[in-house]
Amino acid sequence: MDVRAVVVNYNGGTEVLACLDSLLTCGLPLDVVVVDNGSTDGSDLAVEQTAGVRLVRSPRNLGYPGLNQALIDLTGVDAVLVLNPDAVVEPGCVQALVQALESDPGVSAACPLILLDGGYREVAFALDGPPRASLDLLAVDGADRWHLTGPKVRRRWAGGVAWSVGDGSVLRTTSWHVRLRLQAHAPGRLTLTSGSHTTTVDVGREPVEVALDVDGPAVEVVQNAGSVIGPHGVGVNRGYHQPLSPAFRTGVDVPAWCGAGVLLRASYLREVGLLDPRWFLYYEDTDLAWRGLLRGARYRYVPQARVRHAHSTTIGHGSGLYDVQHHRNRVLTVTKNAPEAEVLATWRDSLRLVGQQLRGDVVARVRDRRPPEPVLTLRRLQGLAAAARLTPAVWRDRAAVRTAAVPDEALPVLGRWTDPAGVA
Questions:
Q1: In a domain, 232, yes or no
Q2: Beta-carbon count within 10 A of 38 CB
Q3: Residues 352-372 pLDDT 10s
Q4: Last residue of a domain, one of 213, 231, 266
Q5: Which domain-ending residue is among 213, 248, 270?
Q6: Distance (Å, rounded) from C-alpha 352 to C-alpha 348?
Q7: Phi, psi of 141 (to 5 degrees)
């Protein structure tokens, strides 16, 4: 099978070079192409000097759909491996993905197990306070990579990115020592536990700083084991932020694939089309996967194929581009691919979420005599306004997209899919 590997680069630094090295030494002959979206950090020049790699320069920053420039002519190509510039393939990964396509002609995309790069240790939050008590996590210092999971975890704005966390929440990090800046809505007692280390501190309306040694066994954490299209078109990384467990060893058909790492059959791209350039960033993979489902495509998760991704939840968070594009493109993806009733329901749900954000970040804070935080509410509104401007053109595309070989009710989308391996 002749495979073309395509990487989109924008100021990828040394990470894109590590990505290319993993492809060039994977053990299979690959046609490696890098599409550069106007890098200014010199990474484009370093890529240009890398033997065995072709560089394609975009006329401007085209976002992730810039990779279309390497897909327009697929003559002699059987499959396309798409990989993020901050990801590396482990030994045997590409071979396992190729085998998945060769062994089952009905599979259009082979999805690897994408792991967050590094070993993660946990810091658990135990908050003694009123039943609805939560904390504002204002800063995490000293942590190289980290993410939050658990009940009441919600991103918010406090002169920048902050998080609401509650009892039972967990911080995972690759670092051995962290400093947290915390603030509580009501006085309480916080216990932070990491392995054998425990720290207890009183919290209240005045911010406090807590230094903590991170202890315990390091675990591998999943970013993506195939993708899911949830209610109202919400794109979900299957297994997102879960510690690697035996449940991920089972290969299953999944509803969608993740653009951070996937092997796509070239015939699938010829039939379904390429990434929609209007999406620019986020949900462009969900849109293309959904279009394929309407034509009977199947996507297979291949647990033997592993990709390491230097991804962190701090990446993009706080960026207006991230927030606006996420809200805009989810609505547009549903508008293009879903039945009319679901399009209307998604728009209503999006407006409901704006109201929910407004109540939490503005109304409730004013009532509680705290400064309002309208930033995220305004960004949701900007995303919906941008979606509304594009909706007439996207709606016209529906006729061509929804020439369905598969009826809507049979598609594993909009929350109708049950995971056969039991991965939540």
A1: yes
A2: 15
A3: 999 999 998 899 888 878 789
A4: 213
A5: 213
A6: 6
A7: -110, 150
